[in-house]
Amino acid sequence: MRVISGSARGRSLKAVPGMGTRPTTDKVKEAIFSMIGPYFDGGAALDLFAGTGGLGIEALSRGMDKAVFIDKEFKSIETVRQNLKATGFEAVAEVYKNDAERALKALAKRDAVFELVFLDPPYRMKNGDALMEQMDELRLLTPQATVVLEYESSYAYPERFGPFRQLRKAEYGETAVSIYAYDSEPNAVQTDDQGGGTT
């Protein structure tokens, strides 16, 4: 694994020891960033099931100002710290050992907000949409934030739910990726070429 593009391009990333973590492959990572970027003009990213930290580090390399990395596994936290050191992003990153739901509540208490969120939970978990709704309730997302949800391709998340709208979906073998846009005012009147109305 490596950083694909940006200021840390080509830097190698360590894998989490053992077989319990399924890192996003370079191929899928490159596809994700071609859909959502590929580069950014600042902002904050959240890597909620960080694993190796590869997605959040790639976002930093491509222009995000800062990133928060969350994982409940000690081995993952240690790997993220090593990869941040190897890529030179320690000063613009925060790393916390916690489970996802508790971490979101803790971030809300600090008034944290994010322009970009990566959600790559273990495939046995099918709660990506619930976590996104929790982010909405806790006001953790900026208007028009982007959420990247990675999951098992045999499973399907809804195209729309609450203030979230799926912009893109792609499948790579057993992995599916959905890109969601967050609309903080989903009931606002739309003035598009279909004559308006509410969503």
What would your notes on this structure say?
This is 16S rRNA (Guanine(966)-N(2))-methyltransferase RsmD. Keywords: Methyltransferase, Transferase. GO terms for molecular function: 16S rRNA (guanine(966)-N(2))-methyltransferase activity. This protein has helices at 26-36, 54-61, 74-87, 100-109, 128-137; strands at 44-47, 66-71, 93-97, 114-119, 141-152, 160-161, 164-172, 175-182. It starts with 25 loop residues before the first helix and ends in a 17-residue tail after the last strand. It is of the alpha/beta class and 199 residues long.
Label this structure with key terms.
199 residues; alpha/beta; eight-stranded mixed beta sheet; 5 helices; 8 strands; 27% helix; globular; disordered C terminus; RNA_MeTrfase_RsmD
Q: Output the strand order for the largest sheet.
A: 3-2-1-4-5-8-7-6
Count all strands and give the number. Answer: 8
The whole-angstrom Rg is 16 Å
Roughly how much helix do the residues carry, as a percent range? Answer: 25-40%
Number of helices: 5
Strand content: 25-35%
Cα-to-Cα separation, first versus last residue? 41 Å
| Order of helical and strand elements | HEHEHEHEHEEEE
Overall structural class, as computed from helix and strand content, comes to alpha/beta
The whole-number mean of residue pLDDT values reads 91
The main sheet comes to:
8 strands, mixed
Question: Which of globular, elongated, flat, extended, rod-shaped describes the shape?
Answer: globular
Low-pLDDT stretches are 188-199
Organism: Paenibacillus mellifer
EC number: 2.1.1.171
Keywords: Methyltransferase, Transferase
GO molecular function, one term: 16S rRNA (guanine(966)-N(2))-methyltransferase activity
